[in-house]
């Protein structure tokens, strides 16, 4: 954080960034120079049920946002009474909220890893199932938003007259902003034809809805209205925008928008991003989807991205829990123990079998053919995820020239053993210098939103 001693006596402009993450909701406030002034986080208020079902109530989400803004306000009060000049919201893809004509939530939001909707997508018309990946750039599975929309429909929710908002767009609308969709988030729903950039009619027909389900589309970082006073005076009057899909916002924050490198975000999911200057087309999207790789729209209008994911963070967290490790000190000690081993471990090949890292899995399965320490098991999980990452890179390299460098971000990238493992498969990896890339990237988009219209 910046030394804020001189801010009490001089005018200051503040810009906020919200990151709606799978584990926590984070907020950073920066000044016109990009220095961090305040930061806080609260747990994402999921409701967890049987069989991995995980959803979020809209009121619970908004209460969490209010409490987070109050935490930020407490940090800022000794420094400045100034309200935020601008505020941007980024967040996870796939999760969204159906709203009625007044903007009130009509159903819960489902986590991207919630399994509901598999039966519904299996019942989609054959032409929709066959063309889904080539049209939308996404593999057809329970993760996409249309699976949850179909599930809600079959549970008795009438979709007529309702509109879809991804989670960041819902929060911005609740803050007082416009009701509109951002390109990169809308691309995660399964509703958008990547070539036309508009709603895919066959998908709308399969759901039994029309194009009114989708509010107008807008590029990330464009004006989204002004915050009301409903969330307190600290944000009232702030210029609002939706920053976009969290991984893409983090990539932009790191300046990794060129086509030669990977941006690798190591959170609950590990995501590899590769920027494209134009879409690859229907056939390439079909081939990439077979490898569980997306080709969708960037937060930057006109650009597309390859998005490849593995559930590394989920598996690593479960490996820690299985070892009885629940705090940072325990994690650091395990990291040191893993680093004391060679990359391949010291046990015979095949002594530990691991599965679960594929993006359509996420269930950690361990088979131990001999006694193994927590460090050996953790290293085996890393090697397994390395194999999955290498397969994704090979699939992308068949469609575009190989990348020459990589930038690592996210909480798991702080572990030396994780960085060492990825150096085995990623080209020229380097580590991001920021702890909260998504929140900082959103705050930076908020800052740029007003940079041309408000004097510095």
TrEMBL record:
GO terms for biological process: D-xylose metabolic process. Residues 16-224 form the Carbohydrate kinase FGGY N-terminal domain. Keywords: Carbohydrate metabolism, Kinase, Transferase, Xylose metabolism. One of its GO terms (molecular function) is kinase activity. Belongs to the FGGY kinase family. This is Sugar (Pentulose or hexulose) kinase. The lineage of its organism: Bacteria, Bacillati, Actinomycetota, Actinomycetes, Micrococcales.
């Amino acid at each position: 954080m910046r030394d804020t001693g001189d801010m009490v006596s001089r005018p200051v402009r503040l810009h906020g960034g919200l990151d709606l993450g799978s584990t926590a909701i984070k907020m950073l406030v920066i000044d016109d120079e990009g220095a961090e002034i305040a930061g806080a986080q609260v747990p994402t208020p999921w409701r967890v049920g049987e069989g991995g079902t995980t959803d979020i109530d809209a009121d619970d989400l908004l209460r969490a946002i209010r409490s987070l803004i109050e935490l930020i306000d407490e940090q800022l009060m000794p420094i400045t009474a100034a309200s935020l000049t601008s505020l941007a919201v980024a967040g996870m893809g796939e999760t969204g909220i159906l709203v009625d004509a007044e903007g009130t939530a009509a159903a819960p939001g489902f986590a991207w890893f919630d399994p509901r909707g598999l039966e519904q997508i299996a019942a989609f018309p054959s032409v929709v199932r066959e063309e889904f990946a080539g049209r939308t750039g996404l593999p057809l599975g329970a993760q996409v938003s249309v699976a949850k929309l179909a599930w809600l429909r079959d549970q008795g929710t009438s979709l007529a007259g309702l509109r879809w908002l991804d989670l960041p767009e819902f929060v911005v609308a609740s803050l007082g902003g416009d009701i509109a969709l951002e390109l990169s988030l809308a691309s995660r729903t399964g509703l958008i034809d990547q070539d036309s950039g508009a709603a895919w009619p066959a998908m709308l027909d399969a759901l039994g809805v029309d194009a009114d389900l989708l509010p107008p589309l807008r590029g990330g970082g464009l004006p989204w209205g002004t915050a009301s006073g409903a969330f307190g005076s600290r944000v009232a009057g702030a210029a609002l925008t939706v920053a976009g899909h969290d991984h893409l916002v983090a990539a932009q924050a790191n300046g990794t928008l060129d086509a030669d490198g990977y941006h690798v975000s190591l959170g609950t999911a590990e995501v590899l991003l590769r920027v494209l200057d134009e879409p690859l087309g229907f056939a390439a999207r079909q081939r990439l989807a077979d490898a569980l790789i997306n080709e969708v729209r960037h937060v930057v209008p006109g650009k597309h991205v390859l998005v490849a994911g593995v559930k590394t963070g989920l598996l690593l967290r479960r490996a820690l829990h299985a070892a009885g490790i629940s705090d940072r000190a325990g994690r650091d000690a395990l990291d040191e123990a893993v680093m004391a081993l060679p990359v391949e471990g010291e046990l015979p090949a095949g002594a530990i079998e691991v599965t679960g890292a594929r993006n359509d899995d996420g269930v950690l399965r361990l088979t131990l053919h001999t006694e193994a320490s927590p460090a050996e098991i953790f290293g085996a999980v890393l090697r397994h995820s390395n194999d999955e990452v290498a397969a994704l890179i090979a699939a992308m390299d068949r469609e575009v020239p190989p990348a020459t460098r990589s930038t690592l971000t996210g909480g798991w990238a702080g572990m030396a053993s994780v960085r060492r493992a990825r150096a085995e498969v990623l080209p020229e990896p380097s580590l991001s210098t920021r702890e909260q890339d998504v929140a900082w990237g959103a705050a930076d988009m908020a800052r740029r939103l007003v940079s041309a219209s408000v004097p510095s």
